Amino acid sequence: MLTSLLAATLNAALSVQVGDAAPPITATAWLNASDPKLTGQPVLVEFWGTWCGPCVAAMPHVQDLWTRYRDKGLAMAAISYEEPAVMQPFLDKHGYTMPAGSDPTKACIEAFGIESW
């Protein structure tokens, strides 16, 4: 019951509901990919920031998913509202190779209804 209530509450807060077509996954700049293919296949979208402790802790797992499943049809977009000049050194330092998008206008972030990390 509590799980159902929590899921209903979370779904009500999101602009994207289960069963809806996903909004376009956009970025003003892509890092580690020139133009990632983000349609017609499963896409894992990770919203993150270099300043976000839980995000930083999750990134090795996100990279692992990308490494393990990219050749099996999984696409990835790690979206941050930070500028490429902040994101790229972080990605390089940790050896992250998944496609990462810079969304400083928060167009993609807002389209997915992300309000906090």
Please describe what this structure looks like.
- This protein is an alpha/beta fold and 117 residues long.
- It has helices at residues 2-13, 53-69, 84-94, 107-111; strands at 29-31, 43-47, 75-80, 100-102.
- Helix 2 links the parallel strand 2 and strand 3 (75-80).
- It starts with a helix and ends in a 6-residue tail after the last helix.
What value does the average pLDDT take?
A: 88
Enumerate the strands of the largest sheet in spatial order, edge to edge or round the barrel: 1-4-3-2
What kind of sheet is the major sheet? 4 strands, mixed
**How many β-strand stretches?**
4
Helix content: 25-40%
Percent strand: 5-15%
- Kindly provide the radius of gyration, computed on alpha-carbon positions and rounded to a whole number of angstroms: 15 Å
**What structural category characterises the helix and strand content?**
alpha/beta
Q: What's the end-to-end separation, in Å? A: 26 Å
Task: Please state the overall shape, judged from the principal axes of the Cα atoms.
Answer: globular
Query: What string gives the helices and strands in order?
Result: HEEHEHEH
Give unreliable regions as ranges. Answer: 1-12
Number of helices: 4
In short:
This protein has 117 residues and is α/β, with parallel strands linked by helices. The protein is built from four helices and four strands; from the N terminus they run αββαβαβα.
